[in-house]
Amino acid sequence: MSNDQKKTAVILLLICSLLFSGCSSVFVKSGKLYSVNSASESDSRYMQIVVDEYSDVINGTLLYYDQINSVGLYTTRQIEDGNMLYYLYLLDDDGSHLLFSGANVYTEGYVDLSCDSVIFKEHNVENNSVTIYAADTQATRKLKLTDAFTDRTLVWCGDGRSIYYINSSNVLVHTDGENIQEVHTFDPSINVRRLFSMSTKNSVIFTASGTQGNVILYRLYLDTDEISTIDGNIGEFECSDALGLVVYTKSAGGHEQLYLYNTNTFLRTYLTTSDISKIALSTSGSYVAYATDITTDLPSQSIWLINTRGDTPAQLTANTTIQGSMVFTGPDTLLFTLSSPGDTSGESIYMIKKLHFTLGFADVKNRGGQE
Question: How many CB atoms lie within 10 A of CB 153?
Answer without folding.
Answer: 10
